[in-house]
């Protein structure tokens, strides 16, 4: 694990989440995702479930939320709904034209977290009927070997999406490898042509990177308006922060980007109606950074030591959850927020790719 450390803020976040999920998970799934209505009763512990009988479209980044009343944006439930939608489309495609969408994953090295992600992607493919292909290469493989695998999948007609799991070992040229993925199969959306088109007005990428796409999809599915809002993206990586900022801009938000050299990040963040945090710093964004009523999408996935957890660690986001949910109007939890959406968007991009390649509507 890259950053195993103690952290003060949100020390009780995990137990609180489990508590909330157990008591209110079912209604969240049914009401937030299905009928787009919220009729929650505030949990006994008060944090992060807003009591409301209004439609989710009432969530506004402008309105001051009442104390301790943020709505939990349930990424796990939305991802499940998207997987159900994909399952139907995959079987319709199979029945109509006999084609099964296929996703190939290339994993180099033996990082535990990467192996877990790849295993989860395979499980997700199985759950919707997408065929999965996998190549595992040793840490000391050559770049040529990886390029050979990419090229094999580029030429394989049963593969419609190719994902090279990142990070790659340091002796490899990541750009060179990502450039080699056929843009028609670039379901991660990391090819420079796809990113370039995302940045240009009037141009459409073939694929949008999965994590930022998942963030926007959550905002859409909760009817959170983006147009005209002030958005702040914290982090500017090629795979999350930068494409997230581009997507928000395409949705007519006014976007600021914060990075490691930004002065007074808290001041800039406090102006935002919508915050997307993709930093990799556990609990960095404190309650005092957040404008009352802001909507928060927490992309960060940071392992922090926790002897009481079965794995010896637990995952926290970049946002100090327990402080933020007292100020924000809506927030994604970690885990159960953006992570499951990333995988759902990967499946969705793979289905889109197969449909496009076979000209199937
Ligand atoms: N939920 C999901 O599906 C996914 C989650 N993640 C998680 O999201 C987080 C970010 O991932 P990723 O984008 O790949 O990370 P990177 O390390 O590639 O990028 C981090 C970004 O954050 C900025 N940054 C770092 N420290 C600070 C700071 N103190 N203040 C302001 N900005 C800072 C960096 O700035 P600079 O550019 O100046 O260096 C950089 O732009 C991680 O926790 C990762 O695990 C990632 C992918 C998917
Ligand atoms: N080519 C490439 N594409 C990626 O999209 C990519 C990548 N490389 N490298 C690593 C990051 C990270 N990433 C995650 C996906 C899902 C969860 C996820 O499902 N998380 C669960 C928790 C999982 C757990 O408990 O361990 C959750 O947040 O609820 C997390 C992180 C994709 N990435």
Automatic annotation (TrEMBL):
It comes from the Eukaryota. GO terms for cellular component: cytosol. It catalyses: (6R)-5,10-methenyltetrahydrofolate + H2O = (6R)-10-formyltetrahydrofolate + H(+); (6R)-5,10-methylene-5,6,7,8-tetrahydrofolate + NADP(+) = (6R)-5,10-methenyltetrahydrofolate + NADPH. Pfam families: THF_DHG_CYH (PF00763), THF_DHG_CYH_C (PF02882). This is Methenyltetrahydrofolate cyclohydrolase. Belongs to the tetrahydrofolate dehydrogenase/cyclohydrolase family. One of its GO terms (molecular function) is methylenetetrahydrofolate dehydrogenase (NADP+) activity. Residues 73-188 form the Tetrahydrofolate dehydrogenase/cyclohydrolase catalytic domain. Homodimer. The keyword Isomerase does not apply. The lineage of its organism: Eukaryota, Viridiplantae, Streptophyta, Embryophyta, Tracheophyta. Residues 209-356 form the Tetrahydrofolate dehydrogenase/cyclohydrolase NAD(P)-binding domain. Gene3D superfamilies: Leucine Dehydrogenase, chain A, domain 1 (3.40.50.10860), NAD(P)-binding Rossmann-like Domain (3.40.50.720). Pathway: One-carbon metabolism; tetrahydrofolate interconversion. Keywords: Hydrolase, Multifunctional enzyme, NADP, One-carbon metabolism, Oxidoreductase, Photorespiration. NCBIfam families: PRK14186.1. GO terms for biological process: photorespiration; tetrahydrofolate interconversion.
């Amino acid at each position: 694990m890259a950053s195993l450390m103690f952290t003060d803020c949100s020390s009780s976040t995990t137990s609180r989440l489990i508590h909330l999920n157990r008591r209110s998970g079912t209604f969240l799934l049914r009401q937030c995702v299905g009928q787009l209505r919220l009729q929650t009763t505030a949990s006994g512990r008060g944090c992060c479930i807003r009591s409301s009988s209004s439609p989710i479209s009432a969530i506004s980044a402008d309105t001051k939320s009442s104390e301790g009343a943020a709505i939990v944006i349930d990424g796990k439930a939305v991802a499940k709904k998207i997987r159900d939608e994909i399952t139907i489309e995959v079987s319709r495609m199979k029945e109509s034209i006999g084609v099964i969408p296929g996703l190939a994953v290339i994993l180099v090295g033996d990082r535990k977290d990467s192996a877990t992600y790849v295993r989860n992607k395979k499980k997700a493919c199985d759950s919707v009927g997408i065929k999965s292909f996998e190549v595992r290469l040793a840490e000391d493989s050559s770049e040529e070997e990886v390029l050979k695998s990419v090229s094999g999948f580029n030429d394989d007609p049963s593969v419609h999406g190719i994902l090279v799991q990142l990070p790659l070992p340091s002796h490899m040229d990541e750009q060179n490898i990502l450039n080699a993925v056929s843009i028609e199969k670039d379901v991660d959306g990391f090819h420079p042509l796809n990113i370039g088109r995302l940045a240009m007005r009037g141009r459409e990428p073939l694929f949008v990177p999965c994590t930022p796409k998942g963030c926007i999809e959550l905002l859409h599915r909760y009817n959170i308006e983006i147009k005209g809002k002030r958005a702040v993206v914290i982090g500017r990586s090629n795979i999350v922060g930068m494409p997230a900022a581009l997507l928000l801009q395409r949705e007519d938000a006014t976007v600021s980007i914060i990075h490691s050299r930004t002065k007074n990040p808290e001041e800039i963040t406090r102006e935002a109606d919508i915050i997307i945090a993709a930093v990799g710093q556990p609990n960095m964004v404190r309650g005092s950074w957040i404008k009352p009523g802001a909507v928060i999408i927490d992309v960060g996935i940071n392992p922090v030591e926790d002897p009481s957890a079965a794995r010896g660690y637990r995952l926290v986001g970049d946002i100090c959850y327990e402080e933020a949910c007292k100020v924000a109007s809506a927030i994604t939890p970690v885990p159960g927020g953006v992570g499951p959406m990333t995988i759902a968007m990967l499946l969705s991009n793979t289905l889109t790719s197969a449909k496009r390649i076979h000209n199937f509507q």
